[in-house]
Design brief:
The protein is mainly alpha-helical. It has a domain of about 180 residues. Helix content is about 60%, strand content about 0%. Strands 1-2 form a two-stranded antiparallel ribbon. α2 runs antiparallel to α3. It is globular. The relative contact order is 0.16. The N terminus and C terminus are likely disordered.
Length: about 270
């Protein structure tokens, strides 16, 4: 995963390739631990994906919600790895932010079918609102989309229970979720929005980007493990196999006071 081949056939780190001409950035040490996570996620996604095929109507329970998180996991991890190999730390931030959000919501839902249904309700309400917005600006849909548009317009979303915002999900869920929200989510949001800080770091280059790469891959691993931990029981995953995946942690992840094991203490402040 971590190497590419040049014209001479020599294997070399992607971050030293001509695609990244400004600096030679060492590959993050955490990257080597993604392979096992990706392989496990791919096997699991293949096994649980049948729960989602053709799913367009309720009920949407905890098992389907867990399967949805797992199906996203392999692609997101591969994309994070590909960007990290190219030295693109801040471009990987939004993907890890997605992993963090999936982890928090998965921890909040757990085995609760009613919470999972709220997630589905929210998705359908957002879909219907998207349709309304497109109509406001005069978007004309092709005839081939007629059935999908009719289905979307017929959605009954008014009065349905909706989930709390992500911060409240994190507050109400496992302590892992609260640490992810406080220690990662806001920081990762900078690269997702028009925040100048990533641009300043990219322009500075060198160790700034190298440190960011190590941190982002570590956070991606952390969030992926939290997803597996969150959905393990509802999907019947082997807990020993899941616990074997986290591997050694980077110092910056340890600084988040997270050892990515089932939590034993209360760490969140009072409301």
């Amino acid at each position: 995963m971590c190497e590419a081949e040049d014209v001479t056939g020599t294997r070399r780190p992607m971050s030293e390739s001509p695609a990244n001409p400004h600096w030679s950035i060492p590959l993050p040490a955490q990257l080597v631990h993604l392979d096992a996570l990706v392989a496990f996620a791919e096997r699991t996604a293949s096994a649980v994906g049948t729960l989602l095929v053709g799913k367009k109507v309720p009920p949407w329970g905890a098992q389907q919600n867990a399967a949805a998180a797992i199906v996203r996991l392999p692609g997101l991890l591969k994309a994070v790895a590909a960007l990290a190999e190219g030295g693109l730390a801040f471009e990987a931030d939004p993907l890890v932010r997605t992993l963090v959000e999936l982890a928090i919501t998965s921890l909040w839902v757990g085995k609760d079918d009613s919470r999972a249904q709220m997630v589905w309700n929210d998705c359908m309400a957002a879909l219907k609102e998207d349709g309304r917005r497109l109509g406001y600006v005069g978007v004309v849909f092709p005839p081939a989309a007629a059935d999908a548009i009719s289905w979307m317009n017929d959605l009954k979303t008014e009065g349905l229970a909706r989930p709390p915002n992500l911060m409240e999900q994190a507050r109400a869920a496992d302590d892992l979720a609260w640490v992810l929200y406080l220690g990662a989510y806001g920081m990762l949001s900078a690269s997702t929005h028009a925040d100048p800080r990533p641009a300043i770091a990219i322009a500075s280059g060198g160790k700034t980007v190298s440190d960011a790469l190590e941190h982002i891959v570590a956070l991606g691993r952390l969030a992926a493990y939290c997803i597996l931990y969150a959905v393990g029981e509802v999907l019947g995953l082997d807990p020993e196999a899941v616990n074997a995946l986290h591997g050694p942690l980077a110092a910056d992840t340890a600084a988040l006071q997270m050892d990515i094991k089932p939590p034993t203490g209360r760490i969140r402040p009072e409301k």
